[in-house]
Predict the structure.
Amino acid sequence: MNFIVDVEVTRIVHKNEKFQIVGAIPFSNDSNIKLNKYGNITIRDETLSLEQKARYKVELEEQPPTKWGTQYLLVSFPDFTFDDINDITEETEVKLLHEIMSEGLAKVIHDAYPDFVKRILKNEESTIDYSNIKGVGDKKFWSYVDKIKNRCSAILLKNIFPEYDLSPHDCMALYKAYDTLNYVRTVMEKHPYEVLINICEWGFDKTDRFVLKKHPTLRFSQQRIEYMMDAILREVENYGSTYLKAELMADKIYGIDPEAIPYIKNVAISSEIINYDAEKNYLARQNTYACEQRVAEFIKSKLKYSKKLDWDWRKYEACDRRSGTGKA
């Protein structure tokens, strides 16, 4: 269940490149809001936007219980709603600046560049001469750039691709990988399986469900079938094998989409992510195959150019009491 509430962030509990966990005081009398043992709520922020001691209006979604108690996912900032960069008003610009910096500095920046946020979202940072903005140096400027992109990328990309139900983390990953909204649009239209699986870290089943709903014509495409095979091979790797016989691959694909079987061989032969050994009729993930090949070549080279070492290994049989090594 989603709800909107004003909160004040009291503490950043944990932070990494993908998300942060914060403690926040909710300004609400809603009895359904579950407080933690510290009397506040725990929020998972995948936009990395929430700042300590700052106050926000946020949309939250209750998550399944964890061993640390109830956690809420930050879904959106209701005060910041726009469909396109050009829809950002002066009021929105000012409001966002006030949330990520002091009011005094926000006024200085807005007076110098009334379209400061728009420029950053259009990747026009180079047109901003921050040396002329009192109180803003190189480190602080790029910190603001990151915060603005993190905050707004989720809003813009969710509006561009509503059919994929992208999370804030998905949006940030896409924006970081492709840098501009137009580039994200292009790759998502051309290579949805590759993007959602490799960049957003979705599983094949989830990706397939969303992509086929939007692009039913991709059912027998190269990208769908090769990522179907990739998912099967990843599962096989989890059980200790790095390859699969072609007939077993066909059996597994039959369980997903029987009508895709006639396309397997041609897809495997032309794929850049699947390695097909025609002689042995084996399939493997190309990355795994390449790694194993490098290991094998390294071992062969060491065996071929092995060198006899001129030292007496018998001296090291005695137990070294200090290190605990050797033979007792």
Strands lie at 2-15, 20-26, 41-45, 55-62, 72-76, 244-245, 274-277, 282-285. The chain is about 45% helix and 15% strand.
